[in-house]
Specification:
The protein is α+β, with helices and mostly antiparallel strands and 158 residues long. It has one domain. 39% of the residues lie in helices and 11% in strands. It contains three helices and three strands, in the order H-H-H-E-E-E. The longest helix is centred in the first third of the chain and has 52 residues. The protein is rod-shaped.
């Protein structure tokens, strides 16, 4: 080294680029894992909501002899408000993803059955819950029983 030359400190451009690339790869891996965990957490909330709605609907049916009125065009918060009014639910659960819960009543006077539908985020499509949910009759396929969808249905007796 020349006596007037200063020793060089720091990193070369190649070293900096390698470090930046490693940080990028690690952050991408973390983000993928985070999205997967978020989807599974959403699905766990949906399952818990479905259990809560199932219990509340059964209690309501036991007391009133029918399910709360409602159609697809009515928001679930309006259709299932009687469950809150009668104390079966503290509040109407809301979907954690972009697909709102749907509530359908079938049969005359609400005595035949009710259907609550949710779309899971991370769980692959299934034939519904339970798979025998066919509110329009055994000869009519309903979209909750089709294996090509991602709808999950909570059915009540009919």
């Amino acid at each position: 080294m020349h006596p007037t030359q200063q020793p060089q400190h720091g990193f070369t451009l190649i070293e900096l680029l390698v470090v930046i690339a490693i940080i990028g790869i690690l952050s991408a891996t973390v983000l993928v894992s985070l999205n997967s965990a978020r989807g599974k957490a959403n699905d766990a909330k949906i399952r818990a909501d479905m259990r809560q709605l199932s219990l509340a609907l059964n209690l309501y049916y036991d007391e009133h002899g029918s399910y709360p009125p409602g159609v697809d065009t009515t928001p679930i918060s309006t259709s299932l408000k009687p469950l809150v009014d009668d104390g079966y639910l503290g509040s109407i659960p809301t979907s954690p993803n972009q697909y709102p819960y749907r509530y359908y009543l079938y049969g005359q006077g609400g005595t035949v059955g009710a259907l609550v539908v949710a779309v899971f985020t991370a769980t692959p499509p299934s034939t519904g819950y339970p798979g025998s949910c066919r509110p329009w009759g055994a000869e009519v396929n309903n979209w909750c029983t089709q294996s090509s969808n991602s709808y999950y249905c909570l059915c009540h007796p009919y």
